Amino acid sequence: MNVWHAIRPWLFPVWCIGCGEPEIGLCAACTSAARPARLFLDPIGVRAASDYGGAVREAILALKRGERAYLDPLAGLLAPLVPFGAVLVPVTTTRRRAAERGFDQARELACRVAVLRSGSTVDLLRKRGAAQRGLGRAGRLVARGRFALRAGVAVPARVLLLDDVVTTGATLRDAAGLLAAAGCCVAGAVVVAQTLPGRETPRRGGRLVEA
């Protein structure tokens, strides 16, 4: 394992996606340039660490391409929004998307944030149904039934949802509704970034990238 850590930077070099500083996915200077956290007027209370733009946007897109180097810096950006000891439920992507990327970004972020905040994670949600690629704002708002509960996983009394990006908030409300119906109190949700009004979720080139 020590040998792997020694040779990995030579095989897979990493530079800050914002400024090009070597050996780090997102440097402190570029992270600090992100806009401060904000509270959105949403029924479940969604807080975002940043707008979806600049280096944060590029790091999130890199995650969606399967690049792990940006998980730790984005988790560090997200952690101050999470109370100590919180139980985090990641808003998972589809099994197909996770397989293509090699990981589920929400799960990975939740695990890292839980360590930073002395909390825990519960992998409770299973995403199902058609992907949201190409859906506009209206289509996203009316979509329902995106999630099911994982069989055999105990539902905690109180949780905080965690995701990478929020656009309309419809996905988070869908997940929160399912958990509430199962008797769970959803204390709110935290996300790395909020897309600006009038923009859809992350794009790769000219097309939407699925969450």
Subunit arrangement of the protein: single chain
- Proportion of strand residues: 15-25%
CATH architecture assignment name: 3-Layer(aba) Sandwich
Q: What is the makeup of the main sheet?
A: 6 strands, mixed
* Rg over CA atoms: 17 Å
Structural class: alpha/beta
The percent of residues in helical segments reads: 25-40%
CATH topology term: Rossmann fold
Q: Could you name the ranges where pLDDT drops below 50 across 5 or more consecutive residues?
A: 3-12, 133-143, 201-211
**Average pLDDT number:** 79
Distance between the termini: 32 Å
Count of discrete domains? 1
- Strand neighbour order, sheet with most strands: 1-2-8-7-3-4
What is the number of beta strands? Answer: 10
Could you state the order of secondary-structure elements as H and E? Answer: HHEEHHEHHEEHEEHEEE
Described by the principal axes of the CA atoms, the overall outline is globular
Give the class-level CATH name: Alpha Beta
Task: Tally the helices.
Answer: 8
